[in-house]
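Bit of a strange request maybe. I'm writing a small parser for structure token strings and I need a real example to test against, not something I typed by hand. Could someone generate the tokens for this chain?
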Amino acid sequence: MTDRRAIIRAWWSRNIGARDSSAARALAARLSRGDGVEILAERTVFDLAQSLDLTRSPMQLVPLVQVLATVRENRGGALPRRLGGEPPVLSGLRFQRLLRSEGSELASQIRRALRMVDRACDVGALGADLLDWTDETRARWAFDYFDAPVPDRLAAGGDASVTEPDEETSI
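Reply from user aminoacidic:
Good idea to test on real output. This should exercise your parser:
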């Protein structure tokens, strides 16, 4: 099994994380503004698909790389923890809307939320969560948002499942 977090973090760092590079800025701009076909036509996106073994479902990458292109710094911890707190950066109602979102709407909600935290978070964790946007992931995000200890069965990489496999959704 591959470590999606490490793959995503390395890909982001290598391709769009170094914003002092004009090539990284240009790629991030193309990924942010492009549509599905334009994004999938980028060699670096294809390389990511191969690394994550997603060549049979490449459309999963479109919202993922659009979100990754929004992140400017890989720091500060998990996004939901950065959005919560006292007072929360993102209101409870907006956070609930984000949790209910899927697909392109989820990507839009997360991109807006990233702007509220200076576009900084753990890019590997964010990417892995987007690829596995299940009820279990959403529940973990809720615990993180409220800065509460995450139950072992919801901890990242845990084997326990909150939902049946046919109820899980990914972007």
